[in-house]
Amino acid sequence: MNNNCFFNFKIILLISLAIFYSCNKKEELVKIPKKDDYKNLLSEANKIFSPLPANGYVTFNELTDEKISLGKLLFEEKRLSKDNTISCASCHDLDNFGADTEAVSKGVAGKTGTRNAPTVFNSSLHIAQFWDGRAKTVEEQAGMPILNPVEMAMESEQAVVDKISKIEKYQQLFKKAYPNQANPINFDNLTKAIGAFERTLLMPSKFDEYLKGNQQALNQQEKKGLFIFMSRNCISCHDGPLVGGSKIRNFGSDIRPYWEHTKSKIIDKGVFSITNKPIDLYAFKVPSLRNVAKTAPYFHDGSVAKLENAIRIMGKVQLDKKLEEADIKSIKLFLETLTSYKKS
């Protein structure tokens, strides 16, 4: 065999082997590490996160069965809106992981605001309520949409009280929930009842089981996603029991404008709109990532439809990193472990 024939034979052999291996290789989403690669992952994760508590207990709003039952009814009560068409549950659907599927929700007469309605699940543990943190508690938050002209559009607190006071069912239920008060139907009691119900909406996932010590709660792919989530420093904002929800942070900057990546139609200045402090420009409450795989669309304006794109954008805008596609897929797998076991 001359040199040219031998060279051609080698080329044909290499091509044949390449075709054989490409046809028979099992496609993997990510490279699965050895089991012992993550032997310290659980202990490190417990330094950053923690399992959900049983409820959002606070001293100023006692969680009695009567108050919680009343709060659930009020949460679903459309008569708390001006035209009897909108309730808290309209935007925070308990059968849809505490959110809706809209970029921005619709209020009375089809009016819309400019911000996405986040899930009500686990909301009582947040550092504050609303994207700009303008309400400190779920009790304070509960009253604001009722009086907001774009949302439920009731004229005043007294108008709400007058309307509810005429309903016999609520006359009895408020007395049971607040037995030591002569006039229990008032706006403060109403918002506390809704808040009490919302404080029971703490919905655990298999990630909680993992944090409690069950190593088998997450598979190797999900553990890899957790490792990448931690090692890429997503935890600088998304930590604690909610995997977020505990900080106010700037979304992007003048150097990395968020709207160039999210394609937002409105440039929202965030907390700055309330404080007028330059440090608060484009600042928002960091969202909890619990149930994030079920609560699209994403960001304060619902401008991004797919979770993979949201992860990609966060890498670029917040971390100034171009995340590899394999890392994005791995992070998504981890985020899916934050989906609650139950919806209602």
Question: What's a quick, concise take on this entry?
Answer:
The chain is mainly alpha-helical. The protein has helices at 3-24, 41-48, 65-75, 88-91, 138-147, 157-165, 168-177, 187-198, 206-211, 220-231, 259-262, 272-275, 307-317, 325-336; strands at 248-250, 283-285.
Task: Please give a handful of descriptors for the protein shown.
globular; 14 helices; 344 residues; mainly alpha; two-stranded antiparallel ribbon
N/C terminus separation: 76 Å
Radius of gyration: 25 Å
Strand composition percent: under 5%
Task: Indicate the low-confidence ranges by residue numbers.
Answer: 5-28
What fraction, in percent, of the residue positions are helical?
Answer: 25-40%
Mean pLDDT: 91
Q: Please give the number of β-strands.
A: 2
Tell me the number of helical segments per DSSP (H or I, 4 or more residues long).
14
Order of helices and strands: HHHHHHHHHHEHHEHH
- For the report, how would you describe the main beta sheet? 2 strands, antiparallel
Reading side by side through the largest sheet, how are the strands ordered? 1-2
What is the SS-derived class?
mainly alpha
What general outline do the C-alpha atoms trace? globular
